[in-house]
Write a structure and sequence with these properties.
The chain is mostly helical. It is built from three helices and no strands.
């Protein structure tokens, strides 16, 4: 799967892009941000992108904004972020189903 937003394995989840905790080099358990923290921050970022896109659409409709390209770009970024999170959710559900089928 391609990563058009650069969210996977590119260091794009670090503090500069997402405002999360300072990443540490992997070396052992408990180092670096947890998966939960990274996932929650990505959800918040996707929500902010969606809010920005909605605001841009409203501004275009009310005449406070006239750059259609910027509105289209904002909506596409929000859509891509949502699709990326949806893909992560689908992969997690597949992994959960696979683990659930393991016989003990």
């Amino acid at each position: 799967m391609s990563d058009p937003l650069g969210l996977i394995n590119s260091g794009g989840i670090g503090p500069a892009r997402w405002g999360g905790a300072t990443p540490r080099p992997p070396g052992g358990p408990g180092e670096g941000p947890s998966f939960k923290d990274v996932l929650l921050e990505n959800i918040r970022q996707a929500d902010r992108m969606q809010q920005d896109a909605n605001r841009a659409i409203e501004d275009l409709q009310t005449g406070r904004r006239d750059d259609v390209e910027g509105v289209i770009l904002a909506t596409q970024k929000a859509d891509m972020a949502f699709r990326m999170l949806q893909s992560v959710r689908n992969r997690m559900m597949e992994a959960y189903d696979e683990i659930r089928q393991i016989r003990v």
